[in-house]
Amino acid sequence: MNLRAIAGISVVAVLGCKPSPAPEAATPIDAQPEPAPAPVAEVAVESPAPAPVVRANVPPKWAGDAAKKIFAAAKGKTRGWDRLAKMTDLYGHRLSGSQALEDSIGWTLDTMRADGQENVRKEKVMVPHWVRGKERLQMASPARRDLTMIGLGMSVGTRGTLTREVIVVDHVDAIAKLDDTAAKGKIILINQVMPPYDPATGDSHYGDTVRSRTRGASEAAKKGADAVLVRSVTAHSLDTPHTGTLIYEEGVRKIPAAAVTVEAAEFLSRTSKRGPVKVSLKMGAKLLPDAESGNAIAEIVGREKPEEVVVIGGHIDSWDVGDGSSDDGAGCMAAMEAALLIREAGLQPRRTIRVVLFTNEENGLRGGLAYFDAHGNEPHVGAIESDSGMGAPTGFSLAGDDADAFAALQVYQPLFSDLGELSVIKGWGGADISPLTKNGVLSMALRPDASHYFDLHHSPADTIEKIDPAHIQGNAAAMALMAYILAERE
Ligand SMILES: [Zn+2]
Predict the structure, then answer these.
(1) Cis omega (within 30 of 0) on the bond before 142?
(2) What's domain 23-129+289-488's superfamily in CATH?
(3) HEC sequence for 142-171
């Protein structure tokens, strides 16, 4: 997910883990041209067929050697998964402000020290401390029953029970078109359907659908609604509620906001077509003073240009449901594993590879912003974030539209073939590295298969056993090789 500039909104928009080239990802990112020249060892390949425009290249030998060593180190291991299981079983989910987050950060630091990484430290970051409290949603009339819900992150509470008539819209943009009195004193349900994952384009349809979650509360408040309910941002549901952060627009009344399951949204939508429906919503959510957290950092110090840095990482915080394995415990384990594989392969790159496990991506992005504040002036030659779940490895996505950087990276693509059909595509980077991206740093997202990511995302179903150990290992090996290439190339 990227920072999005939204007119009239001063807060940072954290959209929560976006792996697909969704519409918003197509927004041009003002990445500067990649400063390094193309790899010196590019060799033109003789081709019997005339191919006038395409200039094929092969990767340099050092990169092929590194690939062999890294993949050999990764082979047969399930260490990334075993570590993720250990961390999530011990500490559970990791919402900003929670002790579990700090304990998990401490555990990653101990683990990276034991791995033999260098300059292992926690860099302090103050984070928002939002707590959910008790919450409940019931249909009050025409029938009485509990509905599966989950409050949206950063929502205000209800101060008691709010019993109101429900009006249903099918898209967040439909709220603005309501008559001025239609929603006054009511609860708006946004029953916006997320289309299924499209295997042809790789589009999860997250980018458009998530606007109902991020913008719904303020849009509803502008029409005088007292609360908003949002259909969970998922295309598949087993009555699983999906949370995620909302963004209150400045100057607009803050109203409580919760997600309901696809099933509950359909139920309310159906019944409201037969006559008036009332629900009772109770949410104990509140925002406490900022809490102390930190980014967990470790390095493989470069042999020739230690001051130049390649960042690899994920975010260590999660929502307060499930155990946050796919979002984004696995991304953190993949980055830790990538650094360890490089060590085990006996490689020390020209430049420094820095693992950063960012805190507070989900409801503040304070970790990413703090990292940039502290390190943005250091020369970064690349950044790779893993925050799109941990399906089978399919490659990387390059932020921005720098054709030269894209062409240079594609030269290395064949080296990844031992891990599957991996490719480098143009698209997006990562939320935590987005301040670096905006500063011109070559930024990439690790891009695992995301066809089932949003079935789990931000829900109680995001737990460790959904992840295949081989997928963490494969993605970690891919990340290790790409990081090594960026850190080693001319
Ligand atoms: Zn995430």
Answers:
(1) yes
(2) Zn peptidases (3.40.630.10)
(3) CCCEEECEEECECCCCCCCEEEEEEEEECC
Dihedral sign computed on CA atoms, order 472, 474, 477, 478: negative
What are the residues whose beta carbons fall under 8 Å from the beta carbon of 80, sequence distance 6 or more?
330, 333, 334, 336, 337, 469, 472, 473, 476
Residues with CB under 5 A from ligand 1 (ion): 17, 327-328, 387
Regarding the domain delimited by 133-284, which CATH topology (the fold level of the hierarchy) does it fall under?
Answer: Glucose Oxidase; domain 1 (3.50.30)
Q: Has 299 been annotated as catalytic?
A: no
296 C-alpha to ligand 1 centroid (Å): 16
Q: How far is CA 43 from the centre of its chain?
A: 37
Kindly report the pTM of this predicted structure: 0.89
My answer on whether omega of the bond before 180 falls inside 30° of 0, hence cis, is no
Blockwise average pLDDT, block size 10, the chain, 490 residues: 33 43 34 35 40 64 98 98 98 98 98 98 98 98 97 97 98 97 98 95 93 98 98 98 98 98 98 98 98 98 98 98 98 98 98 98 98 98 98 97 94 96 95 97 97 97 98 98 97
CA of 330 relative to ligand 1 center, distance in Å = 10
- Contact between residue 358 and residue 295 where contact means Cβ atoms under 8 Å apart: yes
Identify which of 415, 178, 401, 131 has the alpha carbon closest to the alpha carbon of residue 291.
131
